[in-house]
Amino acid sequence: ATIERYAGYLQTLLRGMVENERQVLGRIDLLSAAERNYLLHGLNRPQATPPQPCTHRLFEAQVRRAPDAVALAMGEARMSYAELDARANRLAHYLRERGVGPDARVAICVQRGFDMLVGLLAILKAGGAYVPLDPAYPLERLAFMLADSQPLALLADGNLPDGLLLPDALPLCRLDEERPAWADQPDTAPEVPDLTPDHLAYLIYTSGSTGKPKGVMIEHRQVTRLFAATQAWFDFGPQDTWSLFHSFAFDFSVWEIWGALLHGGKLLIVPHAASRSPQDFYALLCDTGVTVLNQTPSAFRQLCTAQASSDRCHALRCIVFGGEALDTAWLRPWYAHPANAGTRLVNMYGITETTVHVTYRALEPADTERAGASPIGERIPDLRLYVLDEHGQPAPLGVAGELHVGGAGLARGYLNRPDLTAERFIADPFGPPGARLYRSGDLGRWHNDGTLEYLGRIDEQVKIRGFRIELGEIETRLAACPGIRETAVIARDTGSGDK
């Protein structure tokens, strides 16, 4: 079938050259009407997720279901759903009195712990959007994010970095005080009558190519539909214990935090020291019975090494990879370990601008035989996903192109960056009226079975003697050769203008 399809491409190309000898070759559409329809619509059949309430409303439903269930754990400390809810409500009333409401931004700069979760929930309950600031970030970056986001208040603890210049008149709320100013506020949820799922839930900053961080605006509806649209794959519930491993300024934490709390599970907050020690972290997973683990592939490789030197057993039922490309060959040691037979591995490609995750791929031991491959599977059902060429047209099956994402997960845009928003969030020429696409800057290609493979960043593309070369694709091919462990391909300038 592949040979027949490629022969058809050649016939179409030759026909186009004959019909219009002035036509630029790259502009000749190789696709038949049937294949074009399959790539644009067959692989993107609409599957809308039912409307969801605001993020904190789903949490409150879990409070009503099981108020005494453990919501948070860290070390020997525990906090129930009811206590977390009450503490967040008191702070939310205080924030409301200070003008926090729909789309208002509130910054939070605290170490990982119970206060962090109280603060995040309180901001949402007050109608605001949280702006997470990691205290470990450089002062210059923190100062930029505060100035750019213009928060109505800053929630902090004793880890607020010395020397951080705060905007004039910015109210500072210390979450670690023994008796804070909101201690006597009501422990019931405040009324925010004009708040809807279309309002902002959080603003997370990502690195920009210019060196200036970009604030990505995510609304409640984009967060809650993420879990509704993926629940059939995972079946998360009160039986699960999740680990909060990542910084809350990294959007993988959105999946960890709300994945636990919106499904009635327990969220284990991993101490910073344990997150930096694979041995300690593996021991913690075993001690606490974590069932859902989310990891970048590079961190997981270290965890596998730690497991190999331990005789402890874990209770993991699901491990989700994200944040970077996964080379499936590196999973061989995991699958070879008999204690891991009951754990399901899932690879999820995603982007901050499309609300954490875009695709889903359940992994199998056979995937480890394809060295260098990074299978990312199928789209989340309420998203649209296209692989487009440099002219914005669908790339044929097996041909690399830029991944474009549309649908319910798209961010509102970048804060204070209308130019960049217009550049990256474009009109969807193939979707319904008013639909948008996010240009990811990532390369991928469709396989014959309708699943995707990730190939790297488009800015790794170089031009040599007029030919566009994908360095990531060369690395993938080299990694598939026997005896090759890791690959890196660069384009060298010989000094004479040649590469």
Q: Would you give an account of this structure?
A:
- The structure is a single chain.
- Helices cover 30% and strands 22% of the residues.
- The protein is an alpha/beta fold.
- The protein has a domain at 55-276: ANL, N-terminal domain (Rossmann fold, 3-Layer(aba) Sandwich), CATH 3.40.50.12780.
- Strand 11 (292-295), helix 11 (297-308) and strand 12 (318-321) form a beta-alpha-beta unit.
- The protein is globular.
- The two termini are 37 Å apart.
Short description:
With about 500 residues, the protein is α/β, with parallel strands linked by helices.
Low-confidence stretches: none
The CATH homologous superfamily of the domain at 55-276 is termed: ANL, N-terminal domain
How would you state the average pLDDT, rounded? 93
Tally of helical runs: 14
Largest β-sheet summary: 10 strands, mixed
Tell me the CATH topology of the domain at 55-276. Answer: Rossmann fold
What's the helical proportion of residues? 25-40%
Shape-level CATH architecture of the domain at 55-276 = 3-Layer(aba) Sandwich
Rg (C-alpha, Å): 24 Å
Strand count:
23
Class per helix and strand makeup:
alpha/beta
CATH class of the domain at 55-276: Alpha Beta
Q: Which word captures the global form?
A: globular
> What amount of the residues lies in strands?
15-25%
First-to-last CA distance: 37 Å
